[in-house]
Amino acid sequence: MPKIETPHLHLRNWRDQDREPFHRINSDPRVMEHFPAPLSREESDSLIARIESHQAQHSFTFFAAELRSTSQFIGFIGIVHTPFEAHFTPCVEIGWRLGAEFWGQGLATEGAQAVLDFGFDELKLPEIVALTVPANQRSRRVMEKLGMTCNPADDFEHPRLPPGHPLRPHVLYRARVQQCAE
Fold this sequence. Notes:
The protein is α+β, with helices and mostly antiparallel strands.
């Protein structure tokens, strides 16, 4: 596990005690507003299993995020290989999911910047992408604060959602190593 720390966050491997607070995050309708549905405990635990499997296979993942000051688990921030085919894949995407009580404090941006730095500096990735539904303004603001750029020509229909689903349209943001070095 790489050591990724910021002034306020420690990004780390997942622990068994993360399961219950992660389920609370995944079952919160505010957090899951831009996803098809809140997750059951089983679905949340299954997501952790997939995250840990990705870590074992690739040495990076959506890392568990905790506050350095209290060691409180607050969600995840990290990078993964995009698990579906689209015009921009194969690629590595950055993502975050924090409990609603931690929104608006700059924590997603702070952690995501550290993850971008890790991806470019340590993993030598040439590009990292982020994706979301157009209406997810909170995540889009984080992407823009990170210096990621969005080109309408990259907009796509999420292949894991059925045609006509209101969350199927997605926007794509890109960060390239030279963008972040400037």
